[in-house]
Amino acid sequence: MHMLVKLIFIMAAYQHNIARARGVCGTPNLIPNTVPVSDSEYQTNTSIRINCTEGYVRKAGTSNKIRCIEKDGSIFWHTDLPLKCIRKSLVCSRDTGHYMTGAHDMSATLFLL
Ligand SMILES: *[C@@H]1O[C@H](CO)[C@@H](O)[C@H](O)[C@H]1NC(C)=O
Ligand SMILES: *[C@@H]1O[C@H](CO)[C@@H](O)[C@H](O)[C@H]1NC(C)=O
Q1: What predicted TM-score, i.e. pTM, was given to this entire model?
Q2: pLDDT band at residue 106 using 50, 70 and 90 as cut-offs
């Protein structure tokens, strides 16, 4: 009887470990100038948004959404349009803002200066 109880405990612990190891993405590898994520484990099919740190903005046309996916037995973070955080332009437009609606590449900013 005691042996059986022990065995059940061992098996329960074993299955628990398998369940934890399966279908979980770890902390994503972040690019420079992004806010660290709070959790260290994310379920498959979970999407999160990575934010740029203070003073940086998301480059137009890049996506800050990443998704934990499972493919061919591996689990990894996936993104269609990898996020790029670029320095917020220090140039303030006094007129319509036609040329400066948001963020610029460093090169473009230097050119405007
Ligand atoms: C990024 O900002 C959005 C909107 O404010 C927020 O919902 C999200 O949790 C943030 N992401 C991280 C990783 O902090
Ligand atoms: C994740 O989504 C795919 C496709 O939408 C689905 O086939 C799969 O079962 C989902 N996995 C989990 C763990 O929810």
Answers
A1: 0.64
A2: very low
